[in-house]
Write a structure and sequence with these properties.
It is a single chain. By secondary structure, the protein is of the alpha+beta class. Among the domains are: 184 residues, Ribonuclease H-like superfamily/Ribonuclease H (Nucleotidyltransferase, domain 5, 2-Layer Sandwich), CATH 3.30.420; 31 residues, no CATH class. Helices cover 34% and strands 30% of the residues. Strands 1, 2, 3, 4, 5, 6, 7 and 8 form an eight-stranded mixed beta sheet that branches. Strands 9-20-21-10-24-25-26 form a seven-stranded antiparallel beta sheet. Helix 11 packs parallel to helix 15 and helix 12 packs antiparallel against helix 13. It is globular. The N and C termini lie far apart (74 Å). The relative contact order is 0.12.
């Protein structure tokens, strides 16, 4: 018997809680809710209903449920449902819990109440969401001190209540827009990627069965093949030239590849009709020659398991990721997570990846253990047409104020096109154990589950699309790097940063762009699109291209400590001055930049006057503020961005708790209270240490000349002596 269809009541509602995290004298962690808010949209106003205890929350939900008909349901959105769920689950028995992974709940149900996660749908924190969506309400930031101990009986100020109300009002306004867009709650997808899937199904319309049949035909026919494709899949290429680690570089030229993944889907070819290649050719060299001659990579896809002997990088850029190796010898040498050398390594590669490896590595011997072959074709015209339409909308609507919402939708959807291609059904089997009410368990998926997903009439994609998209994208970004070699400083997904700029480098990117546009045009001609469908112009009549490298504003200064750890200085046209930006994976962006400024803009003991910087000082006379010398405060940021630098209390660490006890707690107002604690999430401030990994340090010691710098003292002051 199938699931009973749900009829959703068109009432916009949001739910949020505020919680306290607590440590007793022994160091044991606890957490509890001290206030909860239900926000309901009534006409043009909000109705807030707040509670201090979970028993009262449940009673309210029971009243709502009792008002529903047999198959009627309310939908209540929660921004980061996973957090609230950890508190709710022991007080309010949930069913139909849908998870993507452990502690990542997208949806759950209590009687006639369906809770959904608005964070997974919006893919933005509340403050950003309010700005990007131009909502009539905004999140209040900085109003609530989370370090203060509060209990369900702690009196709350108007400011504290206002903070809570603003959060649920932002969610309500966002869901109002989504409800207007989709018409009813049944149609609103669970995630931002789901929105793109929904749009494509709608746009495909009567062509959906045709594209679905192709997806069924082109999907893996055996478990071995599907597992091989999963193993081949890899993400974007991000890496720093090891010769540039911790060096202050000046005048970097930057190129970004626009709309990278959508371009690859439109302009490149993808595998169809797989078959296993059985060969009697005895040597790897002979086999490769046979493959290149009879199954050229331009027209055929290869899915291989390859053994390398004596693998060694040719350049200062290593491309093979250590964690993607199926097997690798213990003597391997790593360059910040990339394999620089290994006597023995086994990788799963497609023909695009192998082409890249052959440009960046040399080896003594190879052996091909498995090999599947497939003919390659362009994606169906119907799919390509939707991508072109989205990019056209994004280009034409940009900068038109009255079309802002439509522009943001088209922008988000073109950016989300790739995400829907890499859903791995075999690794998606996470479920919440409603019996124990604690465990997140993995459900082993079978190949029958995979084929069931493929055969779903709503499916119009096949897994290898996503695998080849990222392979094409990596090849695209690495093509100029292979020619630029040592002058290529840093690469991140779709961008390249260069030092020692030479005019021939600009010519190189021009040649690359010509090749990119030729491939694009060839695909358009194949599908017989008219120019009006693939030529894109903005509101001012300027032409834009889907794909091509575009030169960005140069960096005045740049320093990196490895992948996803860098600081740069660039001219800001709006502020009319140089500004500094930092990227540090694992640390909040704003915090990283702030912590690099120890003196907070002090010059000779005086605060730098922002008005003075702009030449319009509006300070009281006599002005005791000073103008900072050009670059002085930015110098400080670069100097502080170095190895072993510690960001204090820059992020929150989550501790998931499973308790059932009562505590006597004293709140920040010195009131004693008894708090009944069950499951929850304890949030603790944590620091972040930016430290080179030991193996990366050893790699640098062997390869870099640091002039007069004592590298051991510099990078490992507490561990090494010269």
């Amino acid at each position: 018997m199938g699931k009973v269809k749900r009829y959703y009541i068109p009432m916009v509602m949001a739910f949020d809680t505020e919680t306290t995290s607590y440590k007793d004298e022994s160091g044991k962690r606890y957490a509890w809710m001290y206030i909860a808010d239900f926000c309901k949209v009534v006409g043009n106003s909000y109705k807030h209903t707040t509670f201090r205890k979970w028993d009262d929350v449940r009673e309210y939900l029971d009243l709502l449920s009792d008002s529903c008909g047999k198959n009627e349901y309310y939908v209540i959105y929660v921004h980061n449902l996973s957090f609230e769920f950890q508190f709710m689950k022991d007080w309010i028995p949930m069913s139909d819990v849908f998870c993507r992974k452990a502690h990542n709940v997208l949806k759950c149900t209590y009687r006639h109440i369906e809770f959904r996660d608005s964070l997974c749908l919006a893919n933005n924190k509340l403050a950003t969401l309010a700005v990007n969506e131009r909502l009539p309400v905004t999140k209040r930031e900085g109003d609530l001190d989370y370090d203060l101990i509060r209990t369900p009986n702690t009196p709350l100020t108007e400011t504290e209540m206002g903070y809570l109300y603003a959060d649920t009002e932002v969610v309500c306004e966002y869901i109002k827009k989504k409800l207007k867009e989709y018409g009813n709650f049944a149609e609103i997808p669970m995630t931002s990627t789901g929105e793109v899937r929904y749009l494509f199904r709608k746009k495909l319309g009567k062509n959906l069965p045709k594209v679905h049949d192709l997806a069924v035909k082109y999907s893996a026919t055996t478990m071995e093949l599907q597992n091989l494709l999963i193993a081949i899949y890899a993400g974007a290429y991000t890496h720093c030239n090891y010769q540039c680690i911790d060096k202050l570089l000046t005048t970097l030229h930057c190129w970004d590849f626009s709309s990278d993944y959508p371009y690859q889907m439109v302009a490149e070819k993808y595998p169809t009709n797989w078959f296993k290649f059985n060969t009697k050719i005895s040597t790897a060299e002979g086999l490769l020659n046979y493959l290149y001659e009879n199954y050229p990579p331009e027209e055929f896809a290869w899915a291989m398991e390859v053994e390398f002997y004596g693998l060694e990088a040719k350049h200062c850029h290593s491309t093979l990721s250590l964690h993607k190796a199926k097997h690798i010898s213990s003597d391997c040498i790593c360059d910040n997570g990339r394999v620089n050398f290994a006597n023995y390594a086994v990788y799963n590669l497609n023909e695009i990846d192998f082409d890249v490896v052959s440009k960046f590595y040399k080896w003594k011997e190879i052996s091909i253990k498995k090999c599947y072959i497939s003919h390659k074709e362009y994606l169906p015209k119907e799919l390509v047409a939707v991508i072109l339409e989205l990019f056209k909308q994004k280009t034409e609507l940009k900068g038109i104020d009255e079309e802002y919402d439509n522009y943001m939708r088209s922008k988000n959807r073109i950016n989300g096109v790739y995400g829907m291609t890499v859903f791995d059904i075999l690794n998606s089997g996470i479920f919440f154990d409603e019996v124990s009410n604690k465990a997140y368990l993995r459900e082993e998926k079978t190949f029958d589950d995979f084929r069931k997903y493929v055969n779903n009439p709503n499916n119009y994609l096949w897994y290898s699309i996503g695998v080849w998209v990222t392979s094409y994208a990596r090849r695209m970004i690495l093509a100029p790097i292979s020619r630029l070699s040592e002058d290529a400083v840093y690469c991140d997904t779709d961008s390249v940063k260069l030092k020692n700029f030479k005019p021939r480098y600009a010519k190189l990117f021009k040649v690359v762009n010509n090749s990119i546009m030729e491939r694009f045009q060839k695909a358009m001609d194949y599908h017989k699109f008219s120019p009006s469908e693939y030529e894109f112009f903005d509101k001012n009549g300027n032409q834009h291209f889907l794909g091509v490298f575009e030169e960005e504003a140069p960096y005045r200064r740049f320093k990196s400590l490895g992948s996803k750890r860098y600081i740069y200085e660039v001219w800001d046209k709006k502020k009319h001055r140089y500004v500094v930006h930092t990227t540090v994976a694992g640390a909040p962006k704003d915090m990283a930049e702030n912590h690099c400024t120890k003196n907070k803009g002090l010059v000779d003991g005086f605060h730098v006057c922002k008005y003075y910087e702009e030449g319009i000082c509006g300070c009281p006379k006599p002005c005791e503020h000073k103008k900072a010398p050009l670059g002085e405060t930015n110098d400080e940021k670069f100097a502080n961005f170095t190895n072993n630098f510690v960001y204090e209390d820059c992020k929150l660490t989550h501790f998931y708790l499973e308790d059932d006890c009562s505590l006597i707690v004293r709140d920040y107002l010195d009131n004693l209270d008894v708090v009944h604690v069950k499951s929850g999430v304890c949030l603790e401030k944590a620091g972040f240490s930016m430290k080179l990994a030991d193996e990366f340090f050893d790699f640098l010691v062997d390869r870099i000349q640091f002039d007069d710098v004592d590298i051991y003292k510099y990078f490992r002051p507490n561990q090494y002596t010269k």
